[in-house]
Amino acid sequence: MTESATIQPVPTSEDAFLGGRLRLRQPIAGHRAGHDAILLAAATVARPGDRVVEFGAGVGAAGLALASRVAGLDLALVEIEPRLAALAELNAAANGFPAEVLVLDVAAGAAAYTAAGLVPDDADVVLMNPPFNHPARHRGSPDAARRTAHVANPTTLECWVHAARRTLRSGGVLSLIWRADGLGEVLAALGRGFGDIGVIPVYGRPQAPAIRVLVQAVKGSRAPLQIHPPLMLNEADGRPTAQAKSVLDGEQILPAPVGPN
C-alpha cells in the first residue's frame, strides 16, 4: 500500500486479541473488529506458504489472527476504506506478520483485481466477513465506514462469492461468516462453482436460535453439504463457555469443516 502518508489519521485504540498475543490498532469510532473475525480465523485451515486473501479486512483482524497461528503465509489484506487499510498495514508490521495491503473494492471487476496484483485462480484460501445485516431490518450507523462494513445490499454476498471464486485456484477454500438466518442466501451463492460445503452454527446462548454460521466451501468440488457440531458462545448465566473462551484466546481452533486440497 502506497497511500498511507496522505491519509488523515483517526483517533484509535490498541486492543488485545487472542489472549493478548495479537494487538490491533483500530478506530475508536466506527467499525471495530470483534469476535466474528477471531471465529472466522479459528475456523479457517491454511498451511505454511499458502496464498491467503482476506476480503473486507478492516484493520486486518481475521487475516492476522490466522497468520499468528500459521507461519509463513503469503497474505493479502483487501480493504475498501483507505484509513482502515492504513491501520491494517501498521498492524501487520507491529505484530511481525508480512502482509500485502490492497485498497480495493471487493465488488470491483477482474481488471481492477489484476491491476492490484490479485490474479485469477491463484489463492489457496479466501476468508471474508462481508457486510451481512439486512438494510430493511437493521438501522444503519450514521458513521459511513461502519455502515459500509455492516449493512449488505441485495448483491453483496453474490458479488463477494463471485470474486472469491475468481481468485481461488481449483480446490481452494472459501471461508466466511454470515448471520445464521441468512444461511439460505449463502448456500444459494455457493451453488455455482463450490461444493464440499461445511457449516458450523454459532449460538449466543442455550435455548436460543443460532446467531452466526461459519461456512467453508471448496472451489470445484462436488462433495455434499455437511452440518457440523455447533459452537456455543455463552452459558445460560451469560458466562463464556470453556470452548468459546479457548477459541477466542487462540488456544483452540474450531474443527474446520474442510481444508485446502
UniProtKB/TrEMBL annotation:
GO terms for molecular function: methyltransferase activity. InterPro entries: SAM-dependent_MTases_sf, Small_mtfrase_dom, tRNA_Adenine-N(6)_MTase. Residues 43-180 form the Methyltransferase small domain. GO terms for biological process: methylation. The keyword Transferase applies. The keyword S-adenosyl-L-methionine applies. This is Methyltransferase. It comes from Rhodopseudomonas palustris.
